[in-house]
Amino acid sequence: MLNPLDAPDAVSAAAEPLEDLLDDCNHVTSIRLFPVVPVAGMTPGHDRMKRLAQAVYDAGVSGHRIGTPVDPFESPQAWRRILRHQVTDGGMQPANRYADPDLRRPAEIRKAGELADGIADLIEAHLGIVRSSGDVSGPHTGDIWSRNVLLVTSDWATILYLGFSD
Questions:
Q1: CA–CA separation, 134 and 68 (whole Å)
Q2: I need a labelling partner for 41 at 20 to 30 A (CA). Which of 89, 99, 135, 166 fits?
């Protein structure tokens, strides 16, 4: 396994080609990881995921306080499908922000999916297999659209950020 603490920088570097592919003349795409924190010492319970997400935010510079519970996904690997969907067919795909369905060619959409799969593989190469995941509220950064997804492995937790701005 690769060094878990290097995951945010590795994901930022790997996401650059995907971000460039998803950028358009009016919007800048961002895909990144928040800091990685150990899960050791987090007691089990119904709000464990919320406490882990708060620990991730506390390790960064956001100062964001989570007020709502983390909404866990039924499948721990659902985050992979969400990432792939957002970049191939979801809101991050520029053709969905404009009325022009031909804004991206099929080959570009296929490439976006491949790059997203590579980022997901890279995350798990650094942190291990994601055992639980879910939507979590995040700091308001002025983005037009964003989604924060908590990722929890046996040993580590982080938050995957997806968004685009002006």
A1: 12
A2: 135
